[in-house]
Design a protein that fits this description.
- Its cofactor is L-ascorbate.
- Keywords: Dioxygenase, Iron, Metal-binding, Oxidoreductase.
- Residues 190-289 form the Fe2OG dioxygenase domain.
- This is Fe2OG dioxygenase domain-containing protein.
- This protein has eleven helices and 14 strands.
- It has 376 residues and is of the alpha+beta class.
- It has a single domain (26-299), classed as B-lactam Antibiotic, Isopenicillin N Synthase, Chain (Jelly Rolls), CATH 2.60.120.330.
- Strands 1-2-10-7-12-5-4-3 form an eight-stranded mixed β-sheet. Strands 6-11-8-9 form a four-stranded antiparallel β-sheet, with no helix packed on it. A two-stranded antiparallel ribbon has the order 13-14.
- The radius of gyration is 20 Å and the shape is globular.
- Mean pLDDT is 90; it is low at 342-365 and 367-376.
- Bound molecules: N-oxalylglycine (OGA) and nickel (II) ion.
- Nickel (II) ion is lined by residues 214, 216, 270, 364-365.
Length: 376
């Protein structure tokens, strides 16, 4: 509990344990504001603008792995109410937050700080994080926070809408890729997890990160980033800031969508920087396959060669964690050509925890910081 950044950081200098090595820290880098990711207007996506919207989504998913959507059908009121509830949650006194805080990986709904790896990581990330599954709703809602009192009602409504929006976007993606309607339905998009991230004001944003560079391991992510800057994507060897737009959602392609599309689409690398002025709260919905889903490139997209082999989604998640989120290495292990499935001869097998532990792992950014000098 005393580890939560939101509990201890007010008026304190930046502790050494939050200082990243020079090659990964953001420094005083000014990210280009002239460049930004495409904004796609979903108005009439089911009508006369459909072909055009499909093309815009495909292009953005190829070039950036990221885009924003507006006129997406989720009401402004629901978006604002959810953000209010999320902010209230992190503003609650410590005695209310302590009920949610847990270091027990078996707990499906819990508040933690930095990453799943707090005790082992070299550097901590400047964020607190509430996480829980959102599907099936009737099973998981009873584990959600009881305070703020409107949490369950408002977040249930938002998660249903976020899932619907995600499926709608996946349908547009499948159309763009020439896949049959409903390709990403059922098992490939069965799971839904919510991360509520909270980044308190930071005494020195140049030295630390809210989340280190990573790709999301799931299928598709729908992010409500509120109205404070912080999210940056790594594109063509440079960082680009993602402009907070009122009532927009940021959408990004996860590793599974890159793999199923046989690299037609790319999962964009991204990170979160902090700021010294205001707290930033975001809500990320991760749409993911069920753990036993078999993932492989869609047959019609394979052409001459399948870049990736078939595997079970839970095996991807184990590798994602054991390779510290290093995107190239993780994807490399699932390539068709990779010898011994990428495992060096004599390497110890990856430790498989019980199923309940695995189910806590299936979303982005839970890896320790890499040793000095190995990033970028
Ligand atoms: C994540 C993530 C971005 C943000 O939770 O995986 O990338 O702006 N979040 O909070
Ligand atoms: Ni992410």
């Amino acid at each position: 509990m005393e580890k939560l950044v939101s509990s201890w950081s007010k008026n304190k200098p930046l502790p050494e344990s939050y200082i990243f090595p020079p090659e990964t820290r953001p420094g005083n880098l000014i990210v280009p504001t002239c460049k930004t990711i495409p904004v796609i207007d979903l108005c009439n996506a089911e009508g006369r603008n459909r072909t055009d919207i499909v093309q815009q989504i495909l292009k953005a998913s190829q070039e950036y792995g990221f885009f924003q959507v507006v006129n997406h059908g989720i009401s402004e009121n629901l978006m604002n109410e959810s953000m209010d509830v999320f902010n209230e949650l992190f503003e609650m006194p410590d005695e209310d937050k302590v009920i949610l805080y847990s270091e027990d990986p078996k707990k499906s709904c819990r508040l933690l700080t930095s990453s799943l790896n707090y005790d082992r990581e070299k550097v901590h990330q400047w964020r607190d994080n509430l996480r829980h599954p959102c599907h099936p709703l009737q099973d998981c809602i009873k584990h959600w926070p009881q305070k703020p009192i409107r949490y369950r009602e408002v977040v249930a409504a938002l998660s249903i809408e976020a899932k619907k929006l995600g499926l709608r976007i996946l349908e547009l993606v499948s159309e763009g890729l020439g896949l049959e309607s409903g390709y990403f339905g059922d098992k490939l998009s069965e799971a839904l997890h919510l991360f509520v991230n909270h980044y308190p004001p930071c005494p020195d944003p140049s030295l630390t990160l809210g989340i280190t560079k990573h790709c999301d391991p799931n299928l598709l992510t729908i992010l409500h980033q509120g109205d404070v800057h912080g999210l940056q994507i790594f594109n063509n060897e440079e960082w680009i800031g993602v402009e907070p737009l009122p009532n927009a959602f940021v959408v990004n392609i996860g590793n599974q969508l890159q793999i199923i599309s046989n690299n037609r689409l790319k999962s964009g690398e991204h990170r979160v920087v902090t700021n010294s002025r205001v707290a930033r709260t975001t809500a990320a919905f991760f749409i993911a396959p069920s753990e036993d889903s078999i993932i492989e490139p869609a047959i019609s997209l394979v052409g001459e060669a399948s870049v990736y082999r078939a595997y079970e989604y839970k095996d991807f998640l184990l590798d994602y964690l054991s390779h510290m989120g290093n995107n190239e290495v993780v994807l490399g292990r699932f390539e068709s050509q990779s010898l011994n499935n990428g495992t060096p001869v004599n390497a110890p097998p990856i430790q498989r925890g019980p199923k309940f532990e695995l189910s806590r792992l299936d979303h982005g950014s839970d890896y320790p910081s890499k040793p000095k000098g190995t990033l970028e």
